[in-house]
Write a structure and sequence with these properties.
It contains four helices and 28 strands. With 456 residues, it is mainly beta. Strands 1, 2, 3, 4 and 5 form a five-stranded antiparallel β-sheet that branches. The protein has a five-stranded mixed β-sheet with strand order 13-12-11-10-28, with no helix packed on it. It is elongated and about 80 Å long. The relative contact order is 0.07.
Protein backbone atom coordinates (compact mmCIF):
# COMPACT_ATOMS: atom_id res chain seq x y z
CA UNK A 1 0.00 0.00 0.00
CA UNK A 2 2.81 2.37 0.90
CA UNK A 3 4.50 1.65 -2.41
CA UNK A 4 1.33 2.51 -4.31
CA UNK A 5 0.93 5.78 -2.37
CA UNK A 6 4.57 6.59 -3.07
CA UNK A 7 4.02 5.99 -6.78
CA UNK A 8 1.00 8.28 -6.82
CA UNK A 9 2.94 10.99 -5.01
CA UNK A 10 5.80 10.66 -7.51
CA UNK A 11 3.31 10.91 -10.33
CA UNK A 12 1.78 14.06 -8.88
CA UNK A 13 5.23 15.60 -8.35
CA UNK A 14 6.20 14.90 -11.95
CA UNK A 15 3.01 16.50 -13.23
CA UNK A 16 3.64 19.59 -11.12
CA UNK A 17 7.23 19.89 -12.34
CA UNK A 18 6.14 19.40 -15.95
CA UNK A 19 3.54 22.13 -15.57
CA UNK A 20 6.13 24.43 -14.03
CA UNK A 21 8.67 23.79 -16.79
CA UNK A 22 6.31 23.99 -19.75
CA UNK A 23 4.06 26.85 -18.65
CA UNK A 24 1.31 27.55 -21.14
CA UNK A 25 2.48 24.66 -23.32
CA UNK A 26 0.66 22.32 -20.94
CA UNK A 27 -3.06 22.75 -21.50
CA UNK A 28 -5.91 20.35 -20.81
CA UNK A 29 -7.11 20.83 -24.37
CA UNK A 30 -4.24 18.67 -25.62
CA UNK A 31 -5.68 15.65 -23.82
CA UNK A 32 -2.19 14.38 -23.02
CA UNK A 33 -2.02 11.68 -20.37
CA UNK A 34 0.59 13.64 -18.45
CA UNK A 35 -2.25 15.83 -17.20
CA UNK A 36 -4.71 13.09 -16.36
CA UNK A 37 -3.64 11.95 -12.91
CA UNK A 38 -6.49 9.42 -12.39
CA UNK A 39 -5.64 7.49 -15.58
CA UNK A 40 -2.58 5.25 -16.01
CA UNK A 41 -0.35 6.71 -13.28
CA UNK A 42 2.33 4.17 -14.20
CA UNK A 43 3.13 6.04 -17.41
CA UNK A 44 4.21 9.08 -15.41
CA UNK A 45 6.49 6.97 -13.27
CA UNK A 46 8.01 5.37 -16.36
CA UNK A 47 8.86 8.71 -17.99
CA UNK A 48 10.00 10.18 -14.68
CA UNK A 49 12.20 7.13 -14.24
CA UNK A 50 13.85 7.69 -17.62
CA UNK A 51 14.50 11.33 -16.75
CA UNK A 52 15.77 10.39 -13.29
CA UNK A 53 18.24 7.95 -14.85
CA UNK A 54 19.78 10.87 -16.73
CA UNK A 55 19.82 13.15 -13.68
CA UNK A 56 21.50 10.41 -11.61
CA UNK A 57 24.52 10.61 -13.92
CA UNK A 58 25.13 14.14 -12.61
CA UNK A 59 23.35 15.92 -15.49
CA UNK A 60 21.04 18.82 -14.67
CA UNK A 61 17.93 20.11 -16.40
CA UNK A 62 18.72 22.91 -18.87
CA UNK A 63 16.44 25.81 -19.74
CA UNK A 64 16.88 28.24 -22.66
CA UNK A 65 17.99 31.81 -21.95
CA UNK A 66 15.46 33.53 -24.22
CA UNK A 67 12.55 33.04 -26.59
CA UNK A 68 9.10 31.58 -26.05
CA UNK A 69 10.27 28.00 -25.41
CA UNK A 70 12.41 28.31 -22.30
CA UNK A 71 11.31 25.21 -20.37
CA UNK A 72 13.64 22.29 -19.72
CA UNK A 73 10.78 19.87 -20.45
CA UNK A 74 8.53 20.78 -23.39
CA UNK A 75 5.42 19.18 -24.87
CA UNK A 76 5.21 19.69 -28.63
CA UNK A 77 3.33 17.89 -31.41
CA UNK A 78 6.37 17.12 -33.53
CA UNK A 79 4.80 14.68 -36.02
CA UNK A 80 1.50 16.51 -36.52
CA UNK A 81 -0.71 13.65 -35.29
CA UNK A 82 -2.45 15.75 -32.64
CA UNK A 83 -0.59 14.23 -29.67
CA UNK A 84 2.35 15.89 -27.95
CA UNK A 85 5.84 14.49 -27.82
CA UNK A 86 8.10 15.28 -24.86
CA UNK A 87 11.41 17.06 -25.48
CA UNK A 88 13.81 17.28 -22.53
CA UNK A 89 17.05 19.27 -22.28
CA UNK A 90 19.97 18.52 -19.97
CA UNK A 91 23.50 19.72 -19.32
CA UNK A 92 25.94 16.95 -18.59
CA UNK A 93 28.89 16.92 -16.22
CA UNK A 94 31.34 17.48 -19.11
CA UNK A 95 29.52 20.71 -20.02
CA UNK A 96 27.93 19.32 -23.17
CA UNK A 97 24.18 19.37 -23.72
CA UNK A 98 21.91 16.35 -24.09
CA UNK A 99 18.51 16.42 -25.80
CA UNK A 100 16.05 13.56 -25.39
CA UNK A 101 12.75 13.09 -27.23
CA UNK A 102 9.95 10.75 -26.12
CA UNK A 103 6.68 9.65 -27.71
CA UNK A 104 3.75 8.04 -25.95
CA UNK A 105 2.87 4.70 -27.51
CA UNK A 106 0.51 2.04 -26.13
CA UNK A 107 0.31 3.74 -22.75
CA UNK A 108 4.05 4.15 -22.22
CA UNK A 109 6.78 6.56 -23.30
CA UNK A 110 9.32 5.47 -25.90
CA UNK A 111 12.54 7.34 -26.65
CA UNK A 112 12.45 8.50 -30.29
CA UNK A 113 15.63 10.55 -30.40
CA UNK A 114 18.76 11.53 -28.53
CA UNK A 115 21.60 13.88 -29.42
CA UNK A 116 24.52 15.53 -27.68
CA UNK A 117 25.65 19.05 -28.59
CA UNK A 118 28.37 21.51 -27.62
CA UNK A 119 27.58 25.11 -26.76
CA UNK A 120 28.59 27.80 -24.29
CA UNK A 121 24.90 28.36 -23.46
CA UNK A 122 21.50 27.05 -24.53
CA UNK A 123 20.23 30.29 -26.01
CA UNK A 124 16.79 29.61 -27.51
CA UNK A 125 14.59 26.90 -29.00
CA UNK A 126 12.26 26.90 -32.02
CA UNK A 127 9.98 24.38 -33.68
CA UNK A 128 9.82 25.37 -37.39
CA UNK A 129 6.83 24.02 -39.30
CA UNK A 130 8.26 21.71 -41.97
CA UNK A 131 5.11 20.22 -43.52
CA UNK A 132 1.62 21.42 -44.41
CA UNK A 133 0.37 18.50 -42.30
CA UNK A 134 1.87 20.14 -39.19
CA UNK A 135 5.16 18.30 -38.79
CA UNK A 136 7.92 20.26 -37.08
CA UNK A 137 11.68 20.30 -36.77
CA UNK A 138 13.62 21.15 -33.63
CA UNK A 139 15.91 24.18 -34.00
CA UNK A 140 18.28 24.81 -31.09
CA UNK A 141 20.31 28.01 -30.79
CA UNK A 142 23.62 27.91 -28.93
CA UNK A 143 25.69 30.73 -27.51
CA UNK A 144 29.17 30.12 -28.88
CA UNK A 145 31.20 33.00 -27.44
CA UNK A 146 30.97 36.11 -25.29
CA UNK A 147 30.43 38.45 -28.28
CA UNK A 148 26.75 37.72 -28.99
CA UNK A 149 27.58 35.21 -31.70
CA UNK A 150 25.29 32.21 -31.92
CA UNK A 151 24.92 28.95 -33.77
CA UNK A 152 21.73 27.11 -34.72
CA UNK A 153 21.40 23.36 -35.19
CA UNK A 154 18.25 21.99 -36.82
CA UNK A 155 17.13 18.42 -36.15
CA UNK A 156 14.49 16.25 -37.79
CA UNK A 157 12.84 13.19 -36.26
CA UNK A 158 12.79 9.92 -38.20
CA UNK A 159 12.98 6.18 -37.85
CA UNK A 160 16.66 6.44 -37.00
CA UNK A 161 16.11 9.08 -34.34
CA UNK A 162 17.17 12.73 -34.49
CA UNK A 163 19.18 13.85 -37.49
CA UNK A 164 21.19 17.08 -37.81
CA UNK A 165 20.16 18.74 -41.10
CA UNK A 166 21.58 22.27 -40.72
CA UNK A 167 24.21 24.15 -38.72
CA UNK A 168 24.55 27.94 -39.12
CA UNK A 169 26.36 30.71 -37.23
CA UNK A 170 24.54 34.03 -36.95
CA UNK A 171 24.09 37.31 -35.08
CA UNK A 172 20.29 37.55 -35.23
CA UNK A 173 17.46 35.21 -36.19
CA UNK A 174 13.75 35.08 -36.92
CA UNK A 175 11.69 31.97 -37.65
CA UNK A 176 8.39 32.24 -39.47
CA UNK A 177 6.41 31.86 -42.69
CA UNK A 178 8.11 34.57 -44.72
CA UNK A 179 7.12 33.32 -48.20
CA UNK A 180 3.47 32.57 -47.50
CA UNK A 181 3.65 28.83 -48.29
CA UNK A 182 2.57 27.78 -44.73
CA UNK A 183 6.08 26.49 -43.99
CA UNK A 184 8.60 28.28 -41.81
CA UNK A 185 11.73 29.89 -43.19
CA UNK A 186 14.87 30.41 -41.09
CA UNK A 187 16.17 33.96 -41.52
CA UNK A 188 19.62 34.87 -40.20
CA UNK A 189 21.47 38.16 -39.82
CA UNK A 190 25.14 37.35 -40.40
CA UNK A 191 28.19 39.60 -40.07
CA UNK A 192 31.23 39.31 -42.33
CA UNK A 193 34.06 39.28 -39.80
CA UNK A 194 36.56 40.91 -42.16
CA UNK A 195 34.46 43.73 -43.63
CA UNK A 196 31.91 44.15 -40.84
CA UNK A 197 29.11 44.15 -43.46
CA UNK A 198 25.83 42.58 -42.35
CA UNK A 199 23.72 40.36 -44.59
CA UNK A 200 20.37 38.63 -44.33
CA UNK A 201 20.28 34.96 -45.33
CA UNK A 202 17.04 33.01 -45.80
CA UNK A 203 16.85 29.22 -45.59
CA UNK A 204 13.87 27.08 -46.58
CA UNK A 205 13.18 23.37 -46.53
CA UNK A 206 14.11 21.58 -49.75
CA UNK A 207 13.09 17.96 -49.48
CA UNK A 208 14.52 16.83 -46.17
CA UNK A 209 17.16 19.55 -45.83
CA UNK A 210 17.17 23.29 -45.10
CA UNK A 211 19.06 25.09 -47.86
CA UNK A 212 19.90 28.75 -48.41
CA UNK A 213 17.32 30.38 -50.67
CA UNK A 214 18.59 33.92 -50.89
CA UNK A 215 20.99 36.47 -49.43
CA UNK A 216 20.99 40.27 -49.40
CA UNK A 217 23.28 42.98 -48.04
CA UNK A 218 21.83 45.16 -45.30
CA UNK A 219 22.39 48.91 -45.36
CA UNK A 220 25.96 50.14 -44.89
CA UNK A 221 25.24 51.78 -41.55
CA UNK A 222 24.34 48.52 -39.78
CA UNK A 223 26.77 47.67 -36.99
CA UNK A 224 24.76 45.11 -35.01
CA UNK A 225 21.21 43.87 -35.54
CA UNK A 226 19.16 44.49 -32.40
CA UNK A 227 15.69 43.26 -33.40
CA UNK A 228 14.13 41.25 -36.21
CA UNK A 229 10.37 41.37 -36.76
CA UNK A 230 8.25 39.60 -39.36
CA UNK A 231 5.27 41.81 -40.14
CA UNK A 232 3.22 43.34 -42.92
CA UNK A 233 4.52 46.21 -45.00
CA UNK A 234 1.24 46.40 -46.91
CA UNK A 235 -2.15 44.74 -46.47
CA UNK A 236 -1.21 41.60 -48.38
CA UNK A 237 2.55 41.07 -48.03
CA UNK A 238 5.11 40.53 -45.28
CA UNK A 239 8.61 41.84 -44.78
CA UNK A 240 11.37 41.37 -42.26
CA UNK A 241 12.09 44.58 -40.36
CA UNK A 242 15.66 44.60 -39.02
CA UNK A 243 16.32 47.35 -36.46
CA UNK A 244 20.04 47.85 -35.94
CA UNK A 245 22.59 49.90 -34.06
CA UNK A 246 24.45 52.05 -36.59
CA UNK A 247 28.12 52.80 -37.03
CA UNK A 248 28.72 56.25 -35.60
CA UNK A 249 25.71 56.03 -33.28
CA UNK A 250 21.95 55.92 -33.64
CA UNK A 251 19.75 53.29 -35.24
CA UNK A 252 18.58 52.30 -38.72
CA UNK A 253 16.04 49.83 -40.14
CA UNK A 254 16.14 47.50 -43.14
CA UNK A 255 12.77 46.51 -44.63
CA UNK A 256 13.37 43.29 -46.59
CA UNK A 257 10.70 41.67 -48.76
CA UNK A 258 10.67 38.14 -50.18
CA UNK A 259 9.01 37.32 -53.51
CA UNK A 260 7.57 33.92 -54.49
CA UNK A 261 10.64 33.20 -56.63
CA UNK A 262 12.96 33.66 -53.63
CA UNK A 263 14.13 37.18 -54.56
CA UNK A 264 14.97 39.49 -51.64
CA UNK A 265 14.61 43.26 -51.86
CA UNK A 266 15.53 45.89 -49.27
CA UNK A 267 12.97 48.71 -49.52
CA UNK A 268 14.83 51.07 -47.19
CA UNK A 269 18.35 50.66 -48.62
CA UNK A 270 19.49 52.97 -51.41
CA UNK A 271 20.18 50.87 -54.47
CA UNK A 272 23.29 52.72 -55.62
CA UNK A 273 24.92 53.86 -52.39
CA UNK A 274 23.78 51.06 -50.10
CA UNK A 275 22.80 53.61 -47.46
CA UNK A 276 19.79 53.34 -45.18
CA UNK A 277 20.25 56.81 -43.74
CA UNK A 278 16.63 57.74 -44.48
CA UNK A 279 15.65 55.51 -41.54
CA UNK A 280 18.21 56.93 -39.09
CA UNK A 281 17.24 58.18 -35.63
CA UNK A 282 19.39 58.86 -32.60
CA UNK A 283 17.18 57.16 -29.98
CA UNK A 284 16.60 53.44 -29.49
CA UNK A 285 13.12 53.01 -30.89
CA UNK A 286 12.26 50.08 -33.16
CA UNK A 287 9.65 49.53 -35.87
CA UNK A 288 6.06 49.25 -34.66
CA UNK A 289 2.48 49.37 -35.89
CA UNK A 290 2.24 52.84 -34.43
CA UNK A 291 -1.13 53.72 -35.96
CA UNK A 292 -2.62 50.23 -35.44
CA UNK A 293 -3.54 49.63 -39.06
CA UNK A 294 -1.92 46.18 -39.22
CA UNK A 295 1.18 47.48 -41.07
CA UNK A 296 4.57 48.09 -39.43
CA UNK A 297 6.00 51.60 -39.63
CA UNK A 298 9.65 52.64 -39.30
CA UNK A 299 10.65 55.50 -36.95
CA UNK A 300 13.00 58.16 -38.37
CA UNK A 301 14.48 61.43 -37.10
CA UNK A 302 12.04 64.28 -37.65
CA UNK A 303 13.20 67.56 -36.11
CA UNK A 304 15.84 69.86 -37.57
CA UNK A 305 16.12 71.71 -34.23
CA UNK A 306 17.98 69.05 -32.22
CA UNK A 307 21.26 70.95 -32.44
CA UNK A 308 19.54 73.89 -30.70
CA UNK A 309 17.24 71.97 -28.38
CA UNK A 310 18.76 68.56 -27.53
CA UNK A 311 15.41 67.02 -26.57
CA UNK A 312 14.19 67.53 -30.13
CA UNK A 313 16.03 64.33 -31.05
CA UNK A 314 13.06 62.45 -29.60
CA UNK A 315 10.74 63.68 -32.35
CA UNK A 316 10.05 60.85 -34.78
CA UNK A 317 8.44 60.58 -38.18
CA UNK A 318 6.95 57.10 -38.80
CA UNK A 319 7.30 55.86 -42.39
CA UNK A 320 5.39 53.14 -44.21
CA UNK A 321 7.54 51.58 -46.92
CA UNK A 322 6.22 50.36 -50.25
CA UNK A 323 7.61 49.03 -53.51
CA UNK A 324 8.06 52.55 -54.95
CA UNK A 325 8.97 54.59 -51.88
CA UNK A 326 7.64 55.52 -48.49
CA UNK A 327 4.79 57.48 -46.93
CA UNK A 328 4.79 59.46 -43.68
CA UNK A 329 2.00 58.04 -41.50
CA UNK A 330 2.42 59.65 -38.10
CA UNK A 331 4.68 61.84 -35.98
CA UNK A 332 5.40 61.21 -32.32
CA UNK A 333 7.48 62.45 -29.44
CA UNK A 334 9.09 59.40 -27.81
CA UNK A 335 10.64 59.37 -24.35
CA UNK A 336 12.06 55.80 -24.09
CA UNK A 337 13.91 56.50 -20.85
CA UNK A 338 10.56 57.20 -19.17
CA UNK A 339 8.45 54.68 -21.11
CA UNK A 340 5.98 57.02 -22.80
CA UNK A 341 5.27 58.69 -26.11
CA UNK A 342 2.87 61.33 -27.40
CA UNK A 343 1.39 61.39 -30.86
CA UNK A 344 2.21 64.75 -32.37
CA UNK A 345 -0.90 66.92 -32.39
CA UNK A 346 -2.49 67.41 -35.81
CA UNK A 347 -2.42 71.19 -35.40
CA UNK A 348 1.26 71.32 -34.36
CA UNK A 349 4.03 72.00 -36.84
CA UNK A 350 7.80 72.54 -36.65
CA UNK A 351 7.38 75.68 -34.56
CA UNK A 352 6.42 73.51 -31.58
CA UNK A 353 9.58 72.37 -29.79
CA UNK A 354 10.30 70.35 -26.66
CA UNK A 355 12.44 70.77 -23.59
CA UNK A 356 12.84 68.29 -20.72
CA UNK A 357 14.11 68.99 -17.22
CA UNK A 358 14.94 66.21 -14.76
CA UNK A 359 14.73 66.52 -10.99
CA UNK A 360 15.20 63.93 -8.24
CA UNK A 361 11.50 62.99 -8.09
CA UNK A 362 10.11 64.58 -11.22
CA UNK A 363 10.64 64.72 -14.97
CA UNK A 364 9.07 67.73 -16.66
CA UNK A 365 8.62 67.86 -20.45
CA UNK A 366 7.36 71.13 -21.91
CA UNK A 367 5.93 71.57 -25.41
CA UNK A 368 6.18 75.24 -26.34
CA UNK A 369 5.90 77.50 -29.36
CA UNK A 370 8.74 79.35 -31.04
CA UNK A 371 8.05 82.87 -32.30
CA UNK A 372 8.02 83.35 -36.05
CA UNK A 373 11.26 85.31 -35.81
CA UNK A 374 13.92 84.48 -33.26
CA UNK A 375 17.68 84.69 -32.83
CA UNK A 376 19.87 81.63 -32.50
CA UNK A 377 22.08 83.61 -30.14
CA UNK A 378 19.15 83.98 -27.74
CA UNK A 379 17.06 80.84 -28.02
CA UNK A 380 13.57 81.17 -26.50
CA UNK A 381 12.84 79.18 -23.36
CA UNK A 382 9.44 77.90 -22.21
CA UNK A 383 7.32 80.23 -20.09
CA UNK A 384 3.65 80.98 -19.52
CA UNK A 385 3.40 82.97 -22.74
CA UNK A 386 4.46 80.14 -25.06
CA UNK A 387 3.78 76.82 -23.24
CA UNK A 388 1.14 74.66 -24.90
CA UNK A 389 1.41 71.50 -22.78
CA UNK A 390 3.49 70.10 -19.93
CA UNK A 391 3.84 66.39 -19.23
CA UNK A 392 5.11 65.18 -15.85
CA UNK A 393 6.42 61.93 -14.48
CA UNK A 394 6.37 61.89 -10.66
CA UNK A 395 8.01 59.29 -8.42
CA UNK A 396 8.69 58.84 -4.72
CA UNK A 397 6.39 58.81 -1.70
CA UNK A 398 5.05 62.31 -2.41
CA UNK A 399 4.12 61.72 -6.04
CA UNK A 400 0.41 62.24 -5.39
CA UNK A 401 1.11 65.57 -3.67
CA UNK A 402 3.10 66.77 -6.68
CA UNK A 403 -0.03 66.59 -8.82
CA UNK A 404 -1.70 69.19 -6.63
CA UNK A 405 1.40 71.37 -6.34
CA UNK A 406 1.83 71.59 -10.13
CA UNK A 407 -1.90 71.81 -10.84
CA UNK A 408 -1.66 68.73 -13.01
CA UNK A 409 -4.09 65.91 -13.80
CA UNK A 410 -3.09 62.26 -13.63
CA UNK A 411 -3.10 60.18 -16.81
CA UNK A 412 -1.91 56.82 -15.50
CA UNK A 413 -0.16 55.32 -12.47
CA UNK A 414 2.16 52.38 -13.03
CA UNK A 415 5.24 50.78 -11.44
CA UNK A 416 5.52 53.48 -8.78
CA UNK A 417 5.25 56.39 -11.22
CA UNK A 418 2.46 58.85 -11.89
CA UNK A 419 2.17 60.32 -15.39
CA UNK A 420 0.31 63.61 -15.45
CA UNK A 421 -0.28 66.69 -17.61
CA UNK A 422 -1.12 70.37 -17.41
CA UNK A 423 -2.45 72.42 -20.30
CA UNK A 424 -0.47 75.55 -21.13
CA UNK A 425 -1.72 79.11 -20.88
CA UNK A 426 -0.28 80.34 -24.17
CA UNK A 427 -2.84 82.27 -26.18
CA UNK A 428 -2.43 80.63 -29.60
CA UNK A 429 -5.80 79.09 -30.52
CA UNK A 430 -4.46 77.45 -33.67
CA UNK A 431 -1.93 75.47 -31.57
CA UNK A 432 -4.07 74.84 -28.50
CA UNK A 433 -4.77 71.33 -27.24
CA UNK A 434 -7.59 69.95 -25.12
CA UNK A 435 -7.67 67.39 -22.35
CA UNK A 436 -9.27 64.98 -24.83
CA UNK A 437 -6.31 65.48 -27.19
CA UNK A 438 -3.80 64.64 -24.47
CA UNK A 439 -5.59 61.54 -23.19
CA UNK A 440 -6.11 60.21 -26.72
CA UNK A 441 -2.51 60.83 -27.84
CA UNK A 442 -0.54 59.76 -24.76
CA UNK A 443 0.67 56.14 -24.61
CA UNK A 444 2.99 54.00 -22.57
CA UNK A 445 5.88 52.33 -24.40
CA UNK A 446 5.70 48.55 -24.18
CA UNK A 447 9.11 46.90 -24.17
CA UNK A 448 8.30 44.41 -26.90
CA UNK A 449 11.54 44.35 -28.87
CA UNK A 450 14.03 41.49 -28.70
CA UNK A 451 17.01 40.20 -30.62
CA UNK A 452 15.13 37.05 -31.54
CA UNK A 453 11.52 36.88 -32.50
CA UNK A 454 8.95 34.49 -33.89
CA UNK A 455 7.10 35.19 -37.09
CA UNK A 456 3.37 35.59 -37.29
Amino acid sequence: MRKMIKKLILAAMFMASAALFSGCALQLQYGDGLLALPSLPAEYIELQSQINNILETGAVSAAAESGENRQSIQLVDIDGDGANETIAFFRQTDGNYLIKAYKKEAGSYKEIGSVEAVGLTLHSIYYPVSSVTGQKCLAVCWGIDESNNYGMTVYTFGEDGMEDILSVQYSGIIVGDFSGDSLDELCFAVKDQSSGQMTLKVYSLKGKMYEQDAEILLCNEVKNVSSMTLGRYNKNSKAIFLDSAAYGGGYVTDVVTYSVDGYLRDLSREKDSGSGIKTWRSIEIYCKDIDRDGILEVPTAYSMMSSLYSDEKNKLNWLEFGETGFTSKLKTYHMPSDDWYLKWMDNWDDRVVVQTTRYSRMVKTVFFLLPKNFSISAMPQPDESNTLLTLYMFSGDNRQAYISVYEAKAIIQKNGFVYAYALGKADYPEYAVTEENVLANFSRIENEWTLEDNGE
